[in-house]
Amino acid sequence: MAAAMAAAPLKHRRTTLERVEKFVSPLYFTDCNLRGRLFGDSCPVAALSSFLTPERLPYQEAIQQDFRPAQVGDSFGPTWWTCWFRVELSIPEAWLGQEVHLLWESDGEGLVWRDGEPVQGLTKEGEKTSYVLTDKLREEDSRSLTLYVEVACNGLLGAGKGSMIAAPDPEKMFQVNRAELAVFRRDVHKLLVDLELLLGIAKGLGEDNQRSFQALYTANQIINICDPAQPETFPAAHALASRFFDQRGGESQHTLHAVGHCHIDTAWLWPFKETVRKCARSWVTAVNLMERNPEFIFACSQAQQLEWVRNHYPGLYTRIQEFFQRGQFVPVGGTWVEMDGNLPSGEAMVRQFLQGQNFFLQEFGEMCSEFWLPDTFGYSAQLPQIMRNCGIKYFLTQKLSWNLVNSFPHHTFFWEGLDGSRVLAHFPPGDSYGMQGSVEEVLKTVTKNQDKGRTNHSAFLFGFGDGGGGPTQTMLDRLKRLSNTDGLPRVQLSSPKQLFLKLEGSSEQLCTWVGELFLELHNGTYTTHAQIKKGNRDCERILHDVELVSSLALARSTQFLYPAAQLQELWRLLLLNQFHDVVTGSCIQLVVEEAMAHYKDIRSQGGALLSAAATALCAGEPGPGGLLIVNTLPWKRTEVLALPRPGGSHSIGTLGESPGDSAQHGLCTCSRAHLPAASAAPAACVCGARGSFSSTSRPALTKTDGSVTLDNGIIRVKLNPTGCLTSLVLVASGREAIAEGAVGNQFVLFDDVPLYWDAWDVMDYHLETRKPVPGQAGTLAVGAEGGLRGSAWFLLQLSPNSRLSQEVVLDVGCPYVRFHTEVHWHESHKFLKVEFPAHVRSSQATYEVQFGHLQRPTHKNTSWDWARYEVWAHRWMDLSEHGFGLALLNDCKYGASVHGSVLSLSLLRAPKAPDATADMGRHEFTYALMPHKGSFQDAGVIQAAYNLNFPLLALPAPGRAPATAWSAFSVSTSAVVLETVKQAESCPQGRTLVLRLYEAHGSHVDCWLRTSLLVQEAVLCDLLERRDSAGYLPLQENGLKLTFSPFQVRSLLLVLQPSLS
Ligand SMILES: [Zn+2]
């Protein structure tokens, strides 16, 4: 055929390239080019009417409403409302034999309903503006039908005012710009795909490559023989293209595993409730593609989203399950949501998998084998162990490609965690989870792959993401055409499991990365939205306490029913809030309000569950005080405790206007009658509130020249008249902890103007804008006068608009001084931190992470060091030299840093996008300072940080509190922490508990777990509570013996003896 052409092509690369571009252009020459022929005849819809509502109504309810006539071009809104359209269609008879589409273009996100079921998502930004009514109109087909289109008044990425991440414009209006029927020319579409790919190959392979010229001249020839106005010329053109694409590559070709995906942020620039609909829109579209393309495989993460679709769109869910059976719809990830990888506690991370994997097992009959977290802002060094213990050995992300400073050196590697657990990790080398199947992306995936030669397989995730959308037919057409063409990698439509099996099969030469995967960007997310962070820490504590106290009640009371269902519900709310744009504070105000409501539910219902458990633990007539004191930590504690006064108020210091209102302190020592012979570390215990206090040293308090000294015999704290810490001495050794000539508790403000990602980023240059907040002399006042508790307080004007008050508290017997802080914060793009220059020198500082800790440098030697200028930590950080150190504890903060000898805790930010109101208003938080001798491990820093975060509970007891203090569990070494006690998931009615312990010092250690509960059987299990058949633990007189390696997490099932009643 080509031989019939008149003349050989001229040798002009540039004009030939542009000729091809113009032939497929949607902008130029559409009157005569191929693109202009994509659609044939068209006609308007027969009738269009609409109904507008602020609610997100179910279909059945929506279609009952009063629909009014509407026109193409009408506006509707405002933001977050929904406009339902009734679309009546009448397909012309002349279109028999043709493929007919409903063309629908709107700037709102649409979902087509047909016969009561969702059938297609329509989103302009996701390149879905066409609903296929029929592939081929047949005689017997009904040509009249009525559809509904549910249009949300938001775009794929919300409704930002002016820019994507700006706060939403509440008054935004939307439009339907097109609603018509049209004949779709499938043959034109195929040729367009071919030409675009040929153009991509010609450009992408470049002038050094002969295949590039073959592609270019093939495209040129196609244009020579293809007349857009004469479809009979198309087959010859198509055959020319096939001849090119069918020239195969060699055996050594790299293989791309193309997996369809649709990253849907569970809440971000839109509320949670909108995500429910985003899932339906995206997945129904994916399911349709599966129907048309049996080889198309789609990976879908986040159990929560599947649960939403199950509950709201049961018909769609049934189809999803069918396509799961066919191997096309593949659940991945194993977690409840794609959570943040830094901030959730170790236990919360375990619950992400426990809730996720159990959901996948229940709904699909199998668990996930890969952890899927493409879009999260860093990855804890404990994740490999948690994954391995949750049945997962593969890990996929791509976010480290966002590193601002250092390029991560691997795409396929083994990731080794804190305890030595290893998983096979893969970062799609194209650095995206939203590929579109272009040649450019395909080539990039190979050229950028840093493990070429070590492994010959890569992931290629395609489909619009973030706001949903997902893959399109065009993407699939491109990828199928590129399945095996010389000059390009092979492209295989594949599943994550197929990819990982291939990677595993050729893993001998892979490198290993040890420790955290730190993202050198988005480091402001450790601090933004302090109330969310506080809610997270609080609710993690509440659920811990509820589970422990309920477990004790279950063990002691025959009447008590463990609140398994309520706890699952509350955990799922907490896990939902740990989504990577919620707990990070990088969401809009609407989401913050929803998240705070979730925390409110957990707090109130958690409180009720604690009371119920306390009731079960108390029996008999009312006792003195009517209070039950519970220590929910596994070691003995002697602490000053604020007890409620009769009449409802509490005795200790509301902060702010009347700080240090010290009155009725109670002291509960839980040392009596735990386990008879336990000389060390009694445990999770319960006792009545009548302990009396006998102490040898009390906080003394002197005041000279406006300064205040607090001294409890363990530490001596000196505050200058402005509230700064001039001295902190460990009394026994006389050792000073504050750097010479410096002051601690120094508040500092920084300018905090990032380059773009406002709520996310704090840039390195903010450190150059440090401004210490000058103190006001004379504001320091004595609060509590001493006795059990000494305190001083002061006020500080941070700026003309923001002020701070603080009570500095030292309790008898306590090894740390606490700083109760209240801030009224009204700033724009400022960052507040507090600094403690330490009289300690070390090149490494230690930070608590999930189930352990790790070191990070205090210097800036290399680019990897200085890129960690702002890092995250959980409850404590420590700077130690041999024999001495200073620890900084906190009760709800996550951002931190140690530069040189200065420990710095990040307190508050003031970003304006995507939430213009972020962090404005009142905040309350506590941090504490603990100087110590020896190592932080031996000095008990870890336990102190737990104590600060888990105050003794004083629960109203309806009856007499147990007459004698009673301890349920204790552990023989301080290296091992009993983190969790809960009822086993597998037996919601039963008397089996799950205990989770971890090694916290970083040591190999044996330990005895002792319990006063009557145990019938003890067996090790994994984090999903599955029995380890070789893990039976003999019950010995001393309890149960457990062996730990550094930072190892162990779980066991304790089957309790049947109750005697
Ligand atoms: Zn995301």
Question: Mind explaining what this structure looks like?
Answer:
- With 1061 residues, this protein is α+β, with helices and mostly antiparallel strands.
- The protein contains 19 helices and 55 strands.
- It has a nine-stranded antiparallel β-sheet. Strands 3-2-5-10-7-8 form a six-stranded antiparallel β-sheet. Strands 32-31-37-44-43-40 form a six-stranded antiparallel β-sheet, with no helix packed on it.
- The longest helix has 29 residues, at 589-617.
- The protein starts with 12 loop residues before the first helix and ends in a 5-residue tail after the last strand.
- The model is unreliable at 648-697 (pLDDT under 50).
- The structure holds zinc ion.
- It is an enzyme of class 3 (hydrolase).
- Residues 520-599 form the Glycoside hydrolase family 38 central domain.
- Pfam families: Alpha-mann_mid, Ams1-like_1st, Glyco_hydro38C2, Glyco_hydro_38C, Glyco_hydro_38N.
- Belongs to the glycosyl hydrolase 38 family.
- It comes from Erinaceus europaeus.
